[in-house]
Write a structure and sequence with these properties.
By secondary structure, the chain is α/β, with parallel strands linked by helices. Helix content is 39%, strand content 18%. It has seven helices and eight strands, in the order E-E-H-E-H-E-E-E-E-H-E-H-H-H-H. Helix 5 runs parallel beside helix 7 and helix 6 runs antiparallel to helix 7.
């Protein structure tokens, strides 16, 4: 086949998801298209105001424009407007098969490979366009957080976040500031709001035991 589809095992696709994706590839033939993603329809579009502000101030993952923040965390698009984006969500992403003659997943990200989807698609986006097609709908049941304890989850999250920031993003003052703020934000959110001391321990462990950064591998 010409295309490679990636789905999490806890997604439920609308009956016409595949058809819409294929039609979109056909419609955008004149574009150097590197990949497509659809719309997750079961995410709450209006989180609490305090949560929105906290994630904005501390450059944390949130719902937004489909781009990568200065910190390296993604802002997931879930609205009904089709657009070009800066990364693809790993629970549903589709690439032309030919992409994998140029780009590969980073094998340093093992186990629960947090943000391996963002890493691959971000690198692809530097050469090709990525497209968000909201008509291709799915539900993501998100079972990962139920199967991994909070300390381990945060350790993996921060370890990979730190690694991918060093590997992929500029090291200028705005980016370094945003990364530092994101770590502070994670500690505040998990410690003061969620009152989860194990998550805070995991965050510190992720910083203390980082993966070795390799500048832009696998391209």
């Amino acid at each position: 086949g010409k295309y490679v589809f990636f789905f999490d095992d806890d997604v439920v696709l609308d009956s016409d998801y595949i058809r819409i994706i294929m039609e979109t590839f056909s419609h955008l033939q004149g574009v150097q298209l590197g990949g497509l993603t659809g719309r997750i329809v079961n995410i709450e579009e209006r989180p609490e105001l305090w949560e929105t502000i906290l994630k904005m101030v501390f450059f944390l993952s949130d719902l937004g424009d489909g781009k990568i923040k200065l910190s390296g965390f993604p802002s997931l698009r879930i609205d009904e407007k089709a657009s070009y984006v800066g990364f693809l969500s790993g629970c549903n992403m589709v690439y032309p098969k030919a992409i994998f003659s140029e780009f590969m997943f980073d094998e340093n990200l093992t186990g629960y490979s947090y943000m391996e989807d963002v890493d691959l698609s971000y690198r692809v986006s530097k050469k090709y366009r990525l497209y968000y097609q909201p008509k291709a709908k799915l539900k993501h049941l998100s079972t990962t957080y139920k199967s991994v304890d909070s300390r381990s989850l945060r350790r993996i999250m921060v370890r990979n976040h730190y690694y991918l920031f060093r590997k992929n993003l500029p090291k200028d003052l705005p980016h370094l500031f945003a990364f530092a703020m994101s770590i502070v934000g994670l500690l505040l959110y998990n410690g003061l709001i969620m009152k989860d001391i194990l998550s805070c321990i995991g965050i510190v462990e992720g910083l203390m035991k980082p993966l070795k950064a390799v500048e832009r591998p696998y391209e």
